Input
Amino acid sequence: MKTSVFVGLLSVLSLAGCATKKHVREAIAPVQNQINQTQGQVNALQKQSDEAKQQIGDLDRQVAAAEEKATDSGRKAADAADAAMKANAAATEAGQRAEAANSAAQQAQQAAAHVGQEFNNLDNYQLSATEQVYFGLGRSTLTKEDQAKLDDAISKIHGMQNYIMEVEGFADRTGDRAYNRELSRRRADAVVHYLAVEHDVPLRVIREVGAGADFPDADNQTREARKQNRRVDVRIYALDLNGQVASASTRPATQQ
Output
């Protein structure tokens, strides 16, 4: 009897336990579902977070690449600007050189035209003044008397425009031909030096030559005749602005 009761009691407790578990499961199920949903959402958010981090990482790399390209582009732009500045400076310098060359060419052309004009006017120069200075045997130094003669000749051209001077040195026939030519040149040099230094005569208007014993004024047979040949002839020609042609004679009459 007691055993049957005990078995029955166990059956009741078993049924009650089964009912309680079922009730618990039914009560917990919604919570579990919410937990599962929440976990799913958390997993989804985690996935989104990971994707977002990946995207951020990609963006960071893209920004870094863009910044590197921008820096490189800026450097290239600076290099290009520097190259352009140098090219502009070189072009400016080349332009200045071209302008200077053009100016020099124009000046040369003007000078050539002036020389050509002077050449065309050579026949229009007329003898204006002459002077002769004499030297001792083997000498090429001007005496005070010779300087005074040159002073007088120069006084005749004060204020004169467009003139030229011929300075010819000579020697007698004492000595050989080469020595006489060199000596006559030194005598002409002495006269030119005096005119240029003491009277500021421009060298561009002076024509000088050492003729040696050629073109003697005397026959060289006597001491006095040889003295006449140790000389320098100075002739001053002025341009005839009226265009009258000068005489064909270029050598003054012999002074004995």
